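Bug report (template v2)

What were you trying to do?
Predict the complex of my protein with S-adenosylmethionine.

What happened?
Run completed; filing so the output is reviewed.

Input:
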Amino acid sequence: MGTAALRRHLGRAVRIAIGRYRALKPDTIRFRGAFESHEEALRHVRPGKVKGYDNNGVSEVSKALMQEVPLWDYPMLYWLKRLSPEIDRVIDAGGHIGVKYRAFAPYLELDRIEWVVYDLPAQVRAGRAEARPEDKTLSFVERLEDAPPANVLLGSGLLPYLDQPLADLIGHLRQRPRYILLNKVATRDGPTVVTLENFRLAEVPYHIRNVREVPEALSALGYDIVDSWIIDSIAHRIDTHPELGASVSRGYAARLRDAG
Ligand SMILES: C[S@@+](CC[C@H](N)C(=O)[O-])C[C@H]1O[C@@H](n2cnc3c(N)ncnc32)[C@H](O)[C@@H]1O
């Protein structure tokens, strides 16, 4: 083995050792474990921790931050604003309690855009309970099939938590939207890996998908990617498995091919 190869080999061994050491103190780290599937990750949630997003109280985690407009939301806002003359309804998949509806309200004419949040039952319950009188165009569904046809499907921060392929999710829609806007899609060059994110009260499966998965799914669904971007500031390493490298957070704007 040459010197460079030996150095790489040793570097990897050290990273693995550091990762396994961090695993001994799970409360102090954000991402734990590397699993092949959502189900396998759920089976490894520690006793005493709530399993996944679909539980009361989990909607409180990062709620304030999600109702802000961080830098990485601006590509989404750009596309929503640009498309707004042709939008009368948005389906916000993984829309939580309506966090982006509230965050984007100062920038978009939400009084004339119907904003339908699709999320898991626990988030929908919390969202309905928190709805304010001014949220006139905001509504919630627990099943994508119940959402009326929309011009845009938004998936902001959904893909890392989604327990199914994008194609299956889109298959539940009554009608394909003209545009799909996805943000904060965690990707990597190697095979998809599912880790567990520490939400303190809960551990939540977090999918870092192979980089080809979403573009290939969009293409197979009949969409052309018309824009894409990388969010450098939200790359993550799995604390217990640093040897797997950092994720790359991506966004996509895709248009239905025969939509003109
Ligand atoms: C990180 S939050 C994203 C919130 C917001 N869209 C944003 O960008 O800040 C992820 C959301 O995805 C939702 N989610 C996870 N699995 C889902 C599923 N199978 N169907 C719908 N929503 C899901 C979670 O409940 C949660 O509200």
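What did the reviewer find?
The radius of gyration is 19 Å. The chain has one domain: 3-259.
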